[in-house]
Amino acid sequence: MDNCLFCKIVEGSIPSNKVYEDERVLVFHDIQPAAPVHVLIIPKKHIASMNDLASEDLALISEMHRIAQETAKQLGVADSGYRLINNCGPDSGQAVAHLHYHLIGGSKLGALVQSSDSHAL
Predict the structure, then answer these.
(1) Residues in domain HIT (predicted)?
(2) Positive or negative, the Cα torsion across 68, 70, 74, 79?
(3) Which residues contact 86 (CB under 8 A, 6 or more apart)?
(4) Residue 111 — very low, low, confident or very high, per pLDDT cuts 50/70/90?
(5) Interior/surface letters 60-81, b for 16+ CB within 10 angstroms, e for the rest
(6) Best CA proximity match to 41, nearest among 21, 61, 26
(7) Is the pLDDT of residue 110 over 90?
(8) For residue 26, what is the enclosing H or E element?
(9) 11: which of 4, 18, 46, 68 lies 20 to 30 Å off by Cα?
(10) Which among 38, 65, 98, 100 is annotated as catalytic?
């Protein structure tokens, strides 16, 4: 996509602070971190959102989750805990229309949902 910020990062026309890269996935530090550790995990293939995944993309998503585990270990948050977040669509806060996960950790994170039943969403 010509106007996609993340596609420009993948092609190298916009610089990023890379943590991991292979032929299908790129991990880089968020420029506006929400926690001491905040990286983005993106497919190099342009997929606008989780809603746009095709069946042939499921292996890629699995690979991104494996890379998230490795990245959490590399950045020292695997044992203390981290969040892996995917926003899908404008009401969720998805600011860039390119599928991505936020891996956030490095400090005690606040609750996302307040509930008297900790298992209820």
Answers:
(1) 5-114
(2) positive
(3) 50, 99, 100, 101, 102
(4) confident
(5) beeebeebbeebbeebebeeee
(6) 26
(7) no
(8) strand 25-29
(9) 68
(10) 100
Spatial separation of the C-alpha atoms in residues 22 and 63, rounded to whole Å:
11
Q: Could you tell me which residues are beta bridge partners of residue 41?
A: 27, 101
Residue 46 among the catalytic residues = no
What pTM did the predictor assign? 0.89
Residue 95 identity (one-letter amino acid) = A
| Overall average pLDDT of the 20-34 stretch | 97
Please identify which residue in the block is written with the tokens 């420009």.
8
- For the record, the structure tokens of 118 come out as 């900790």
Instruction: Show the tokens assigned to 100.
Output: 């991505």
pLDDT 10s digits, 40-69: 999 999 999 999 999 999 999 999 999 999
Of 12, 4, 28, the residue nearest 95 (C-alpha): 4
Closest CA to 103 of 43, 60, 46, 41: 41
